[in-house]
Specification:
With about 525 residues, the chain is of the alpha/beta class. The chain contains twelve helices and 22 strands. The chain binds S-adenosyl-L-homocysteine. S-adenosyl-L-homocysteine (SAH) binds next to α7, β17 and α9.
Length: about 525
């Protein structure tokens, strides 16, 4: 309310009435709105003001006076410092409600879709059975603490200070043993960690990826140089590491504490084992974690994983969904929304290693995948072969460039054939490529305008939009709906428990069919 009423470091009592975009609590003190980090909706807290603006301010919890009924005991003692789990103190059921609201609000506010309409088309949120230890990929920065001790862990929220914590509650339980082994090798062989401030030192990050269905683990050290000293000792140590020493074994985790077998993982729990050890060379002074070049020190280049009954090979540089159990549910919904009968041509834009493409291929006439990272496309082609799928083709390039090229080709081809007065009943090669269904699964920034424009011009019957950012999703849906599409179905799928991130699938149909 009154500007200048509060100052930085003031302590105020606030009742939290809402949740912000980054999971923070929102409440008012004397009419002045405060965004309170680490507060849960329903809490009454004492908060310390960290920043004052004219009409609102930021604060962080000093003390919870009356805890919300949605407040739960956080599992990780670093959750407040680490930027990873923004909503760990919130009950999982409330997290799901929050995510559903977040998507709906964005669709209303940015997309212009009325709430009553969303009530009609949105189906119930798909939550996780066990919202812990689900992430199959982790990238741990390596560095030094204030005393100069070698550590690995996580960046403290919005900084590049490393918190020494190798035991993340979202990642695979074995990551801790692997990281401790890497640190022990570094200490023994005087291998330095990278120092961001002056660009000296060697080991920057450790990437660990686990195939949850196969048990295969890939370990990749990102280094600021050509090679590691005594590489063979790292390999030897890692190969000797026993991975299931911890109390909470992966089997406990996957079966749930009450012994019930969780859906989608099957009764056979493969033993976790390292199958690939590599280094990635990154000598650039940037925030990008992985270097472009990978050198294998031992084992295979890729790990394998399974989603449903498809096998995927994943190289260190390719995108792969981080939560395999939920991914399977997500793909099943996308497939259902695509409404395939076996006659359709499907374009899967932003296809990564071809996961959605191959799921669709089994029920479509033909699938074309488009992806910008060449290694991922190579993986996609191999994955098609490995699974005996012959009706999927993949193109390297940007969706906003590949799709318009094909569209121009289709138009040209049709015109030429008309001019030549050929038999119009047979389909040309280009016409066969005309999409009945387009699936898009872009990164957070959403689809490029050119891509949306071309999709509208190509006018497939249905568009399935898989999105990890509901704000850009809403923006893009608005464009597609203004171009003649209508939202028909939608569903939120939680791939990222304890965090504010959320995945949404939407199905649109062309209105004037
Ligand atoms: N559908 C896949 C991957 C989705 S992630 C899956 O479910 O696994 C988004 C993918 O889009 C990434 O693989 C990224 O490399 C790719 N990408 C990013 N920008 C792109 C663009 N302009 N054109 C095509 N692909 C792009």
């Amino acid at each position: 309310m009154v500007q200048g009423q509060y100052r930085k470091n003031d302590i105020v009592t606030v009742t939290i009435e809402d949740i912000g975009n980054d999971g923070e609590g929102i409440g008012k003190s004397d009419g002045y709105t405060l965004f309170v980090k680490d507060a849960v909706i329903g809490d009454m807290v004492e908060a310390r003001i960290t920043k004052c603006k004219r009409n609102y301010g930021y604060a962080r919890v000093e003390k919870v006076v009356t805890p919300s009924s949605f407040r739960v005991e956080p599992k990780c003692r670093f959750h407040r410092q680490c930027g990873g789990c923004q909503i760990q103190p919130m009950s999982y059921a409330r997290q799901l409600a929050y995510k559903t609201d977040k998507v709906r609000n964005n669709l209303q506010r940015i997309g212009g879709f009325p709430m009553e309409y969303l009530d009609e088309i949105m189906e119930p949120v798909v939550g996780m059975e066990e919202p812990w230890h689900y992430r199959n990929k982790a990238q741990f920065p390596v560095g030094y603490d204030k005393e100069g001790n070698l550590i690995a862990g996580f960046y403290a929220g919005r900084t590049h200070d490393i918190i020494a914590n190798t035991d993340c509650v979202l990642g695979a339980p074995e990551n801790q043993i692997i990281l401790e082994t890497v640190l022990a090798y570094m200490r023994e062989n005087q291998v330095s960690a990278y120092r961001e401030n002056d660009g000296t030192g060697l080991v920057r990050h450790v990437l660990i990826r686990t195939g949850y269905a196969t048990g295969e683990i890939l370990v990749c050290l990102v280094i600021n140089g050509e090679r590691l000293p005594a590489e063979e000792r790292l390999v030897e140590r890692l190969r000797k590491t026993v991975l299931d020493k911890k109390e909470e074994t992966p089997a406990d985790n996957i079966h749930g504490k009450d012994g019930r077998t969780l859906e989608h993982r099957g009764p056979e729990i493969p033993r976790r084992h390292i199958v690939s050890i590599s280094v990635s060379l990154n000598r650039e002074r940037t925030n990008v974690i992985m270097g472009k070049e990978i050198r294998i020190l031992w084992g295979k280049e890729n790990i394998q994983d399974k989603i449903g009954n498809l096998v995927f090979s994943i190289s260190p540089l390719s995108f792969y969904q981080v939560n395999p159990a939920q991914t399977e549910k997500l793909y099943a919904i996308a497939l259902d929304y695509a409404g395939l009968t076996g006659k359709e041509t499907v374009w899967d834009l932003y296809c990564g290693i071809g996961t959605i493409s191959l799921f669709m291929a089994r029920q479509a006439k033909k699938v074309y995948g488009v992806e910008v990272i060449p290694q991922a496309v190579e993986d996609a082609r191999q994955n098609a072969r490995r699974n005996g799928i012959e009706n999927a083709e993949f193109y390297v390039g940007k969706a906003e460039e590949v799709l318009p090229e094909f569209y121009a080709g289709i138009q040209k081809d049709t015109t030429e054939r008309r001019i030549a007065a050929e038999d119009m009943s047979g389909e040309s090669d280009q016409e066969k490529r005309h999409p009945d269904v387009i699936v898009v699964d872009p990164p957070r920034k959403g689809c490029d305008e050119k891509c949306l424009e071309t999709m509208l011009a190509m006018r497939p019957q249905r568009i399935v939009y898989v999105s990890c950012d509901s704000a850009t999703l809403a923006r893009d849906l608005k464009v597609l709906c203004e171009g003649g599409y209508e939202l028909k179905r939608g569903r939120v799928v939680d791939q990222f428990g304890q965090t504010v991130h959320v995945e949404t699938v939407i199905m649109m149909q062309y209105q004037y069919l």
